[in-house]
Every structure is written in C-alpha cells, then in structure tokens.
Amino acid sequence: MTYTFPESIRVLLADDHALFSDGLALQLTQADPSVTVVAQVFRGSDVLPAVHEYSPDIVLLDINLPVPNGLECVRQLSATFPSVKTIMLTMYGYRRFINECYEAGAAAYLLKHVRVPAMLDTIRHVMAGERIFPSPPTTDLHADDNFVVRFKLTPTEIKIIKLLRLGLSNPQISQKLFVGVETVKSHRKNIYRKLGIAHLSELINFAQEHGL
C-alpha cells in the first residue's frame, strides 16, 4: 500500500496534566516540523470548543480527561466532527478500554510510555486513513488482557510482531513501515528483550497466544 502523508498536521492536545502536555507538545514539534500543536486543553468540556476554534487534524486525547472523560469526548467528536481523527492516549491497556474507544470512533489507541517517533508514526498512518490499536478489537472482554502494558510494547513493536508472524523479512517490514532496516532490527532487539526471548519461533508462539 502506498501512503501520501500531508505536508502539515495540526494537533490538539487534551490532557489534564499540564506538565506532560507541555513536554509532549515540545517533543512532537521538535521531532517533526510538519506537526503543529495548535492548542492544549485540560478539561473534557473544552475539547469540542477548541476543535471548532482551531480546526485540528488530530486530537491526542487522554482517556482520563475530566468532565467529561476522554471516552465521552471521543463519542462527541465522532458525532460532531467526523473528519477529525482522535488518538486516545492512556496508561490503561485493558481490552475493555480498547474496545470501547474503538467502538466510539477513535482512530488509534496509544499507551503513554510510547516513544515520540512511534507516536508520530501512528499519527501519520492515522492521517492516511488507518486505525491503529494494540490488538484486534473484540467483543471478548477480559480485564486481565493487559499484555501490551505488561511487556511495555509500543504500537510499532506490535505491528512488527504481526508482520514477523506473517513471515516478512526485515527489508520487507522496513518497506511496510517506512523506516530503515536498521530501525527494524533495533525494534526486534527491543521486542526480544522485553519478552525475554531469543528466537523467532518463540516470538511467533507469543503472537499466537495473544491473538496478534
């Protein structure tokens, strides 16, 4: 699949932790000059007015945002501004939350420990029309289905695991994800370290066990 990424991306940050929001805004704009953080809001009640005023392409939305919470905000955004893409940003990797956000219309679901390059990668693919979630949404909800948080896997690492399970080589994965081969190798090394494994066969077994 060939992607055409926009020359500029307007981002609205919605997180009740001002220090985190300020730091994220700085890191995003420094890492990618095409990204502009048009506004930051700290309450759910300010999200829709800010979207109306600043016309962002992407809303990075904390699920714990107060009054109303992020889940209710994404429902409102999907109904009122369907062209705006919402990426949920959270510390919670529970399948129940993933499914609820998916069903509410979110475009992606990221855990807060994700690195900025992986976040930017997700933003670009969401702008290209993809929906990026840690694992395939399902109606089979389990409160303990928390392997993404437990192993601290990033969305890019999840995608690489899926592609490896399909039998793709490092160069093929590099082309799929628009990154260098050395970057793929580095991700694989990190995945093996996080999972405590040493062989591809072990990784494939892990992917099968967790439905990847």
TrEMBL record:
<dbReference type="InterPro" id="IPR000792">
    <property type="entry name" value="Tscrpt_reg_LuxR_C"/>
</dbReference>
<protein>
    <submittedName>
        <fullName>Response regulator transcription factor</fullName>
    </submittedName>
</protein>
<keyword id="KW-0238">DNA-binding</keyword>
<dbReference type="GO" id="GO:0003677">
    <property type="term" value="F:DNA binding"/>
</dbReference>
<keyword id="KW-0597">Phosphoprotein</keyword>
<dbReference type="InterPro" id="IPR001789">
    <property type="entry name" value="Sig_transdc_resp-reg_receiver"/>
</dbReference>
<feature type="domain" description="Response regulatory">
    <location>
        <begin position="10"/>
        <end position="127"/>
    </location>
</feature>
<dbReference type="InterPro" id="IPR016032">
    <property type="entry name" value="Sig_transdc_resp-reg_C-effctor"/>
</dbReference>
<dbReference type="Pfam" id="PF00196">
    <property type="entry name" value="GerE"/>
</dbReference>
<dbReference type="GO" id="GO:0000160">
    <property type="term" value="P:phosphorelay signal transduction system"/>
</dbReference>
<dbReference type="Pfam" id="PF00072">
    <property type="entry name" value="Response_reg"/>
</dbReference>
<dbReference type="InterPro" id="IPR011006">
    <property type="entry name" value="CheY-like_superfamily"/>
</dbReference>
<feature type="modified residue" description="4-aspartylphosphate">
    <location>
        <position position="62"/>
    </location>
</feature>
<dbReference type="InterPro" id="IPR058245">
    <property type="entry name" value="NreC/VraR/RcsB-like_REC"/>
</dbReference>
<dbReference type="GO" id="GO:0006355">
    <property type="term" value="P:regulation of DNA-templated transcription"/>
</dbReference>
<dbReference type="InterPro" id="IPR051015">
    <property type="entry name" value="EvgA-like"/>
</dbReference>
<feature type="domain" description="HTH luxR-type">
    <location>
        <begin position="146"/>
        <end position="211"/>
    </location>
</feature>
